[in-house]
User: Fold this.
Amino acid sequence: MKILVCISNLPDTTTKIKLNSDSKSVDLSGVQWVINPWDELALTRAMELKEKSGGKIEKITVITVGDKIAEPTLRKALAVGADNAVRIDAIASDDYYVAAQIAEYVKKESFDLVMAGIESSDYNGSAVGGMLAEFLEFPSISSVSSVELEGDNFVMKRAIDGGTETVTTSLPAVAIVQKGIAIDPRIPAMRGIMMARKKPLTVEAPADIQAVSEFVNFEMPQPKPPVKMVDAENVGELFRLLHEEAKVL
Amino acid sequence: MIDFEFSEEQIMIQQAARDYAQRELIKDVIERDEKAEFPTEHIKNLAELGFLGMLVDEKWDGGGMDTVSYVLAIEEISKIDASVSVIMSVNNSLVCYGLEKYGNDEQREKYLKPLARGEKIGAFLLSEPEAGSDATKQRTIAEDKGDYYLVNGTKNWITNGNSASTYIVIAHTHPEKGHRGINAFIVEKNSPGISIGPHEKKMGMRSSDTHSVMFTDVKVPKENRIGEDGFGFKFAMKTLEGGRIGIASQALGIASGAFERALQYSQERKAFGTEIFNHQSIAFKLSDMAVKIENARNLCVKAAWLKDQGKPYGTASAMAKQYAADIAMEVTTEAVQILGGYGYVSEYHVERLMREAKLTQIYEGTSEVQKIIISRSLLK
Amino acid sequence: MSVLVYTENWDGKFKKSSFELVSYAHSIAEQNGGDTIAVTIGNVAQDELEKLAFYGASKTVTIGGDTYKNLDSAAYANAITMVAEAQACKIVVMGNNNTGKGIAPRIAVKLQAALVSGATALPQSYDPLTIRKNVFNGKAIGYQQVKSDKAVITLAQNSYKIIDAAQAFQTEAFDAAGVETNTQVQSVDKVSDKLLLTDAEVVVSGGRGMKSGDNWAPLEELANVLGAATACSRPVSDEGWRGHEEHVGQTGKIIAPDLYFALGISGAIQHIAGVSSSKVIVAVNTDVEAPVFETADYGIVGDLKVVLPKMVEEAKKFKANN
Assistant:
């Protein structure tokens, strides 16, 4: 079986965000690029599945849509354990564009399971996994917190309000993963870093697809008014304020 | 050809070390320091990641990484836990390096491989009660008995003294020949006649296990001598040159770890109506600390680069160690000052870093010994 | 331009968030001279459906039948898309929750439409359609401009108010049979009957400042009096003082209640990331410099041992009078 993990290359989540002077774009100079945290957990889980599958899962491929800046991120994924990496050489204009590009690749290669993180921590879209499934007409399971290989199928747990459901679906399928899928992202070992030097990273030309949206403007969040202090001797005042001023009680 | 960029791989290794330190080591570092508890589990994990033998060639089951990567990795680990990084440093740059560089293939096969994989840990037994920085005054004797050596004596302040399985022991075979009579031996810790003193109660680096080791009629096979007869002094000196890069990087990490905490605190803590970073007295302290750390890092990386290029690096590594250790003491002291009362309690980490910094000025050649090495090199 | 709003139901009941979505959709429809069409999947009683009309739905399309018993993203997306096309809606609105995240992207592809995930306000403009949302995990705000003819919007929690806009109640059953489903549910594991943390309008949360897991009784009492859910910070669940299901923060649950009490929580950035969408935050801490006060709207500096029992007492008084 083969698994594809979709990876987004984006600024480290601890990056301090600054806007360019025209506010039409975010200043990304000097940022440290990382694998989107959810995608990194997806990759970690894919590795775990492969390792315990006794050879049944033979290959894990990682894919991203991006320019050359994304390559260190892909090589890190290879160091963590992916078998090969694919970069579609285009700027990731919007979710629709990215999903359509990846779909074109999946149509050429065959995968049994495609994994994608539930949200990207740059533009906070929750879209690529679901869109990809629709472009490919694959079933998709969203909010997946656990994937296990049982026999020839994957059994997944997904979050529902107030609990979890254990579900299966026909393959190939897309699993859109979230918290719980793996505990911590895997740290690459020296051996992995060494092996990554020899693993294939292929660059694919993009298909002719148009993006359907773009970010045209940005602003920084308004600073909130300072906290209003209430005397510890006068807790009744707090409830009066919550009722009369904030109107939340 | 000057290039200050780290390679993608070097950054990946730095990040891997950082991730492990910031995610795992941080969890129990305060508790381990308090209880002076050996980081058994962490060493196992770091071995699996390949950090214990990262400098050893792939052929001998090592990570095959360069010394610059090693500097970056040790710095990251030391930001959180210098007790762990000293275990790493001794294993990599003293024990593994010595065996890889000067051992023969049989010794590498038998002893280096498990050490490079991190399955076993090594210790380097040079210091004695009366021979620290002056290594020629060895009183441990390895008497040549034909097909084996009989070792007697005491070694002090031995890092990994109890947790190591493989010792490299420096001892005199021909005391009359002075430093030319010294040899280095591979000794298995479980050899009959070895007894281990109690765990030293230390000011800092409390979770690395430091012991004295006593040898009473310990038989060491002839084939366990490293190099030609009388090579031991040169072996020790050459190996310590590389070891200094490890300790220099450790001092660097202790300094930058304390600096990161002080910088963050200065932007959170308010006094007189503003974050304390906005007070020049604090901002200038941080500025001075940043310059010192940058200098120390450049010295460490330069020494590592020279080593990777196969060029002489003895003086460069002495400069790196002396400077990094001295500024580690200064920077950690200032970090404690910036954090004030918080700095003095264990929860905020900087007081531990300050205690750890002190040792980097002492072990593997005190700052004064480094100055001897540096000053002698000036006249050449 | 008519707007379709997918109103999810939970065992035949709507939640406050369902009505927020209807109000949001209705505001867009009104600004464009169109209708607000609600669509529900599953069995919902008439009197419950009527509530949607009260907040602005001019028509409610119902899709019943056993096909949709389990959430199947492809099948749901298919059905909702068919309704959108049948009702000539160019904008489809739904919540940015588990269900919405699963089906909205699929609908967007079917409609060849852009998806705006987690919108935080009504569109800034309609020609071109430009919508505000948080980016970089709330560290900046972005305006996403839609270039396609149609759009799918998921609305972030607590981003819009409920507005009364009663319409005549009208329903229409939509036959979406014949849709294949592919998702088999093998088992369901409900956490408990307790008020769901992610649903609660008021949340009372304790941090390391609670000192011990044995000190939770007054916190639970306060929650009880206010009809609130209980939560905790990461160190508390790591220590085992409370279960992990109560952990809110970047690596735990992300919540957006109307009112969040942070009791003995210092306010590490990872914690704030999980609660910053709360409408109002009250913080109680011994340290006046604790970062939580930067985020809080109301604060009390004091020892919880003293302050918390007073809060319980005052909450009881308040509830008795209001």
About this structure: The helical segments of chain A are 37-52, 71-80, 95-108, 128-136, 190-196, 235-244. Chain A has one domain: 2-215. Residues 74 and 85 of chain A are 6 Å apart (CA to CA).
